[in-house]
Design brief:
With 74 residues, the chain is mainly α. The protein has a domain of 50 residues. It is built from 5 helices and no strands. Helix 3 packs across helix 5. The N and C termini lie far apart (61 Å).
Length: 74
């Protein structure tokens, strides 16, 4: 029976509510998330030959893409 009471308290709606610990992302975090989404969409749109020309792996492409997007924003 002891385990049941511990489980019941773990499912307490007040403790598990999403608003209780959720924080709004900062401006920098939101901007980084947007850059990642834009770069990811661009990467998925590239053909295999284009990916090879841009940098054959995602980390290299993402680094270049983020720098480019930051320069445009600034």
């Amino acid at each position: 029976m002891l385990g049941f009471t511990a489980m019941a308290s773990a499912k307490d709606p007040v403790a598990a509510s999403p608003e209780s610990g959720a924080k709004e992302p900062t401006v920098g975090q939101s901007a980084a998330r947007e850059r990642q989404k834009k770069c990811g969409a661009e990467w998925r749109a590239l053909s295999v030959a284009d990916k090879a020309a841009q940098g054959p792996k995602w980390p290299q492409y993402f680094s270049k893409c983020v720098k480019r997007l930051k320069e445009i924003k600034a």
